[in-house]
Amino acid sequence: MIILVINGIAYKALVRFSVIDSTDLVKTATKKHNLSPITSVALGRLLTGIALMVPWLSKNDTLTYIIEGSNKIKYIAAQSKNNGNVRGYILPKIVDTITNEKGKFDLKSAIGNGTLKVVRDLGLKTPYVTPIKLISGEIAEDLTYYFTISEQIPSAIALGVLVDKNGIKRAGGIIIQILDQSLPKKDITEIEKKFKEITPITNFLEKHTPIDALKHIFGKKIEKTETHEINFRCSCSHQKALESLKLLKVDELKEIIIKNEIVEVSCKWCSTTYKIKPEEVKKILEEKNK
Ligand SMILES: [Zn+2]
Q1: Deepest of 71, 97, 172, 244, by most Cβ within 10 A of its Cβ?
Q2: Smallest Cα–Cα separation from 137: which of 41, 205, 11, 246?
Q3: Ligand 1 centre from 241 Cα, in Å?
């Protein structure tokens, strides 16, 4: 299945938007990492949030969202590039389900007091980022807060992952950003009202398409839309796994060679395991000793 993010502008380019049905993206991530229901919801929301940003990234841009939690969920990372490649992981992978009084997944409790970091890497030196405190822990609200406060772009964001006994049923998200303060207050109120009507976004997407969501909110105010393909795709490789072994000390490498066993190197971003043969480890050691 091709996963598309649809983005565009409305209200004479004073507003920009991006919307996605990310069901297959979240299914892929859940399968690759073998996640429990609540961790697939948490990672799924962050992945959906970062996939929405793909159309707005420039060529060598890498955008990363990192959430550090203080309760059961310790770490969530999601990353996207302008070519539509998205990847992400969560630690730990398995967490017992916590539900709130409405019977919904309680991410707020699972994450606890946490921080959100937004890292924009333009391919230059490592950027310095100040983490912001999570105000909600439900992720969409935290990203909304980040954009509104840290980037001064008033935003509305909805992210959702619907799970049933068979796994991921539906996932999706939408972001709307007001790019210019000259947009009349009545238009903002109208957008806010319509936005609320299409949330929870997963319920809306059960019966409608992402385009329906845009039509509902903006009607004839949409000026331009375009689509970008999204893939859960990692940049890891057997070669990179070998490179990572080069970081081991000579003694450690020798130990591996003595054992004469296959070494498994697992990629944290996509859980792909690379099997490194003893002769490959020998080669690394030889190069190190040169
Ligand atoms: Zn990988």
Answers
A1: 172
A2: 41
A3: 9
